[in-house]
Design brief:
Layout (H helix, E strand, L loop, with lengths): L19 E8 L3 H11 L7 E8 L2 E8 L2 H4 L15 E7 L14 E5 L2 E11 L2 H10 L9 H16 L1 H11 L2 E9 L2 E6 L8 E5 L2 E5 L3 H5 L3 E5 L4 E6 L2 E7 L7 E2 H7 L5 E2 L2 E2 H15 L6 E4 L5 H11 L7 E3 L12 H11 E3 L1 H4 L3 E6 L6 H12 L4 E6 L27 H8 L3 E4 L2 H8 L6 E2 L1 H4 L1 E2 L7 E2 H7 L2
Parallel strand pairs: 14-23, 17-20, 20-21, 21-22, 24-25
Antiparallel strand pairs: 1-4, 1-10, 2-3, 2-4, 5-6, 6-7, 7-8, 8-12, 9-10, 9-11, 12-13, 15-16, 18-19
Helix pairs in contact: 3-4, 4-5, 8-9, 8-14
This protein binds guanosine-5'-monophosphate and magnesium ion (MG).
Guanosine-5'-monophosphate binds next to α12.
Protein name: Amidophosphoribosyltransferase
Family: In the C-terminal section; belongs to the purine/pyrimidine phosphoribosyltransferase family.
Cofactor: [4Fe-4S] cluster; Mg(2+)
């Protein structure tokens, strides 16, 4: 979504937000109903804004706003009944960061062009958006937002107008670099697009009354549908009432599925590129137990993100699993707050220890990831105060040391507690008795794809797409010769 100029200072509080959910519906039922239900199901992918665009009475109509899906689409506060009565549409939720919380940047984006209306919902990050924008500006184009999705839409719209739908999307995709999983509406026609690397997920399902394209398969389940397949990396597929029609598959040099979807971002009940997220997390926990065993009395998860990995650790080690921490269901999300101080205070509101579980116990504490380290430092502290005798922290992903340019709001190196520190230094910093991260090999094995098919940029600092000033993944292979 938002894109800052490459090489600009991605300071705290102005980080772009790229994680989002996209959906699309076409069928014989009420498009609005299926789009709303699927967006609510995918709310975890973005809580800042929500929007739906449908084709109706010869034009594309949009309703979007700031907030959760249930807030933006609440009949008490806004009238969106004008979306009723459509058979095709797309939807979007956007991930929140501080700053740039403007409704102009909310999806879906719509333009009216000589072929009619074109609307897009986009998840990912166009890495060359600024260059493309500059060159379009030189030719007289104007832009209304800071979003790279607008750049993507303008590129597609220009080429579709000139070369027709198939060749137009193809031409635009040749220029667009980076991560994009998108749903596209051209009048009443619905398309699903996934970049040639396949960074972000995108699936298609059959519903009782039509088809659903969605970022994650759990949305298809909730609508009583059946997961048909993933959109392939580089594929553009049209969803028609009579079925799926692949327009083309743009050849990719390499596939780079984001490992962080499996580690943290996606819902455990989703299946991404044929791999169930829950099962992957259990496997991560099992590997963690094998790589970093410890004598302890119980395994407790950091709710909710560490649950499946903690369960896997317990199953593999035989150490009993228990609830040792309670999460305030209504607390605000700490990760996105602009200052360290705010984040630290918010973490306090979020979690509390169950004293009877942890008192005098040797505890294995499992979470999915450590980014800045605020959460872990605080949890270790409250467990100590609740009387835990030993605290052994185990993390279901390797050390995050480098920025993500393809969709996670981790941008500056100095944010990462693991950057430039040894495991022992991190252990001291968070105050644990021991600390173990799953290895990169362990992660790759747990996901089950070859390492070359995964983007491990935030773990290695080597990226599958050229990023000015950063190392390219192919480069290291060449260096080995
Ligand atoms: P830290 O306090 O170390 O910065 O954050 C780590 C915690 O944030 C972990 O519990 C992890 O589940 C969660 N987390 C990791 N990545 C993200 C993200 O991209 N967004 C949000 N909201 N939370 C994240
Ligand atoms: Mg968490």
């Amino acid at each position: 979504m938002d894109s800052l100029p490459l090489g600009s200072d991605h300071t705290d509080g102005q980080k772009p937000s790229e994680y989002c959910a996209v959906v699309g519906y076409k069928g014989g039922g009420e498009a609005l109903d299926s789009l709303l239900t699927s967006l609510k199901t995918l709310q975890h992918r973005g809580q800042e804004s929500a929007g739906i665009a449908v084709f109706k009475s010869g034009s594309v109509q949009v309703h979007k706003g700031m907030g959760l899906v249930s807030e933006v689409f609440n009949p008490k506060y806004s009238d969106f009944s004008f979306l009723d009565g459509s058979r095709v549409g797309i939807g979007h939720t956007r991930y929140s960061t501080a700053g740039r919380k403007t409704v102009e940047n909310a999806g879906p984006f719509v333009v009216s062009s000589s072929v009619g209306y074109i609307a897009i919902s986009h998840n990912g990050e166009i890495t060359n958006a600024e260059q493309l924008k500059e060159s379009m500006k030189r030719r007289g184009a104007t832009f209304q937002t800071t979003s790279d999705t607008e750049v993507m839409l303008m590129e597609i719209s220009r080429d579709v107008n000139e070369f027709g739908i198939v060749n137009g999307i193809k031409q635009a995709m040749n220029r667009l670099k980076g991560a994009y999983s998108a749903t596209l509406l051209i009048n009443d026609r619905l398309f699903a697009i996934r970049d040639p690397h396949g960074f972000r997920p995108l699936v298609i399902g059959r519903l009782p009354d039509g088809y659903l394209v969605a970022s994650e398969s759990c949305a298809i389940d909730v609508l009583g549908g059946e997961l048909l397949r993933d959109v392939m990396p580089g594929e553009v597929v049209e969803i028609r009432e009579d079925g799926l029609h692949t327009l083309f598959v743009q050849a990719s040099k390499s596939i780079s599925h984001c490992m962080f979807e499996y580690v943290y971002f996606a819902r455990p009940d989703s299946i991404i590129d044929g791999r169930e997220v829950f099962d992957t997390r259990i496997e991560l926990g099992r590997r963690l137990a094998r790589e970093h065993p410890v004598d302890a009395d119980l395994v407790i998860p950091v709710p909710d993100s560490g649950r499946s990995q903690a369960l896997g650790y317990s199953m593999e080690s035989g150490i009993p699993y228990n609830e040792g921490l309670i999460k305030n269901r209504f607390s605000e999300r700490t990760f996105i707050m602009p200052t360290q101080e705010q984040r630290r205070n918010a973490v306090k509101v979020k979690l509390n220890a169950i004293k009877s579980t942890v008192k005098d116990k040797r505890v294995v504490l499992v979470d999915d990831s450590i980014v800045r380290g605020n959460t872990m430092k605080h949890i270790v502290d409250i467990l100590r105060r609740a009387g835990a005798r030993e605290i052994h922290v185990r993390i279901g992903s390797p050390e995050i040391i480098a920025p993500c340019y393809f969709g996670v709001d981790m941008k500056t190196k100095d944010q990462f507690i693991a950057a430039g520190r040894t495991t022992e230094e991190i252990r001291k910093e968070i105050g644990a008795d021991s600390l173990g991260y799953v290895s990169i090999e362990g992660l790759v094995d747990a996901i089950g794809f070859p390492a070359e098919s995964l983007c491990l940029g935030c773990l290695t600092g080597k990226y599958p797409v050229t990023i000015p000033g950063e190392r390219h993944a192919a480069q290291s292979e060449l260096e080995n010769f």
